[in-house]
Design brief:
globular; repeat
Length: 579
């Protein structure tokens, strides 16, 4: 082992001597670097290897590269890169290669090397890295997409990108994201060919004009059409949105629309898209008078409603009604400075939302109350109808609000996440309209919900209410009563941190650490921002900077996936004073 390490250290000497000779580093600094690199080399040649040692080695070498870059900029020296930077970059790639071969299952190692290659101009390595990674992780569609995008955008190789997408489809024949990105790539390729064609035309060079008869396009459209037939209307609409980005795809968009109308009229999203499309449909020439514009908008909205009602004849489902109601509400809330447009109020032909809005706007409170209550009886299991009706009853200050909130929670399925808006609305009303004891009882009931999203969100609201009504002591007491009862949201802990900092008397560093530690216990494996906030806290007036190194070590141990790379980048920027 010692012989190998000695050889590696000797290989470094020419580069270190060059750094000293050109004035980028002093003799003392070079000696320190040699000592540090020797220690790192020994760690990489132990009998029992550690991933952290490899990460530390790479991070040290990257820091050296960054420092060289700054020193070059400061003294204005830009030569000898092949003698200084290139050997360092080659060493880093070799270490990445060794680490990836040892810990093949760690995708983050592969992605870190990809990011390094992109940043430090070694794009020639990218294809090799992706090829090795995909051979081990063919089950991850996002990696195939990333590799194809790299070939297309970074290496400017459309053929290689197409080959990767076709291979990806063999492993993931029903993955929507792969089809979407493949579709986008082919359109980008066609756009590039069109631009080249235009440049040649401007140069008056004879060329073969590109069109949709191009073999590349025919094959792509055939593949995408197969995917469309398998996956459905929502996927077709996503492709349509991608195609709309390019100004030469009108024929392709028309084909997708024809397929959508012919095969997917049994899906509510089809009718919703076709109805909303009427608003942007080509119409009369641009009108200058306010009355003319108001009439044109009114006609367009009537056509939209006609499409919705046509769809309801064959598809009278709750999603279909939801789309119709949402459209009517969006149009009712439209903002305009034109008086005639403000006065236009298409109620959506007996659509509930506009009806309630109109009744409230003209002051018919009793009628609005009756319609809202009737709607809850007709659609007793719809969260959206309950929310809208209860908002109306709260607005008119009806005496039946409290009992209707309780009835809503009985009728709506308590195990669905959609019930969260009802709980939030109930809490907001109770805080304003009920005594503190009743509000506290409501929060206690919400905390017992079997839906994690409801319980977590209400903890945060409960803590905020406790602080507003009882001050810091009550907030602290509430936090202590809840901090052992999962589930939690990140905001629950950050809110307590904020409350602690707002105290007139000096906040307690011990308490702040306790809040962060509890938050990291729940979210420390995925939330890199939480670790950075904790480190900044230790660097602040109340913290202890000596704890930062330990926190960095813990973060590298705890974080997984892409969060490791984000944390490493943010921590490096913090150390160098960039953030």
């Amino acid at each position: 082992m010692a012989d190998i390490v000695q050889q590696r250290v000797e290989d470094r000497l020419p580069g270190l001597e060059q750094l000293e000779r050109v004035g980028l580093f002093t003799k003392k600094e070079v000696k320190s670097m040699l000592k540090r690199s020797t220690a790192l080399e020994y760690k990489l040649h132990r009998s029992v290897l550690s991933k952290d040692d490899f990460i530390g080695y790479v991070q040290y070498e990257i820091n050296v590269l960054e420092l060289i870059k700054k020193r070059r900029a400061r003294i204005g020296y830009h030569f000898k890169r092949e003698d200084i930077e290139f050997p360092i970059i080659q060493r880093i790639n070799n270490v990445f290669k060794r680490a990836a071969s040892k810990w093949k299952e760690d995708v983050q190692l592969w992605l870190s090397q990809v990011a390094f290659c992109k940043k430090w101009g070694t794009k020639s390595q990218l294809s090799k890295v992706f090829s090795s990674m995909l051979a081990i992780h063919p089950d991850k569609p996002s990696l195939w997409i990333m590799a194809a995008k790299c070939e297309m955008e970074d290496l400017n190789s459309s053929e290689s990108a197409r080959h990767l997408f076709l291979r990806a489809l063999r492993f993931h024949p029903e993955n929507q994201k792969v089809y979407q990105e493949y579709f986008r790539m082919e359109l980008m390729h066609a756009e590039k060919l069109r631009k080249q064609q235009q440049e040649l035309e401007m140069a008056k060079i004879d060329i073969v004009r590109l069109s949709f008869c191009h073999p590349v396009f025919i094959g792509t459209v055939r593949i995408i059409c197969l995917a469309i037939n398998l996956i459905g209307a929502q996927f077709m609409l996503s492709l349509l949105q991608i195609a709309a980005i390019f100004d030469f795809t009108k024929d392709l968009q028309d084909k997708i629309l024809q397929n959508l109308q012919a095969q997917h009229t049994d899906e509510s999203v089809t009718w919703d898209f076709m109805a909303r499309r009427e608003l942007e449909a080509p119409g009369a020439p641009k009108l200058h008078s306010a009355q003319g514009r108001a009439s044109d908008v009114d006609r367009r909205e009537e056509r939209c409603c006609a499409v919705y009602e046509e769809g309801l004849k064959s598809l009278a489902t709750e999603p279909m009604w939801t789309h119709y109601v949402t459209f009517c509400l969006d149009r009712f809330k439209r903002k305009t400075n034109v008086t005639e447009l403000k006065e236009k109020n298409n109620p959506g032909h007996c659509c509930l939302v506009p009806q309630l809005q109109v009744l409230l706007s003209v002051g018919h409170m009793d009628t609005a109350t009756q319609v809202a209550i009737a709607a809850t009886k007709c659609f007793s299991q719809s969260v959206e109808i309950w929310s809208l009706s209860l908002q109306t009853l709260v607005h008119v200050k009806s005496g039946e609000v409290g009992s209707l909130f309780q009835e809503a929670l009985k009728h709506v399925n308590p195990k669905v996440t959609d019930s969260l808006p009802l709980w939030q609305l109930y809490a907001e009303w109770s805080i304003v309209s009920q005594c503190p004891q009743d509000t506290d009882a409501l929060f206690q009931k919400a905390l017992l919900s079997t839906v994690p999203a409801v319980s977590a969100a209400m903890k945060e609201t409960y803590l905020e209410w406790a602080y507003k009504t009882g001050g810091y002591k009550r907030a602290r007491k509430t936090f202590k009563s809840l901090h052992e009862h999962r589930p939690f949201s990140k905001a629950f802990f950050t809110k307590m941190v904020q409350i602690e900092k707002e105290q007139v008397s000096k906040p307690t560093a011990l308490n702040l650490r306790d809040y962060y530690e509890r938050a990291l216990r729940e979210f420390g494996s995925t939330d890199d921002d939480l670790w950075m906030d904790f480190i900044r806290e230790e660097l602040g007036a109340l913290g202890n900077p000596e704890n930062c190194g330990r926190l960095h070590w813990r973060a590298m141990k705890s974080l997984v996936g892409e969060s490791v790379e984000r944390f490493t980048m943010q921590y490096t920027l913090l150390q160098t004073g960039h953030i």
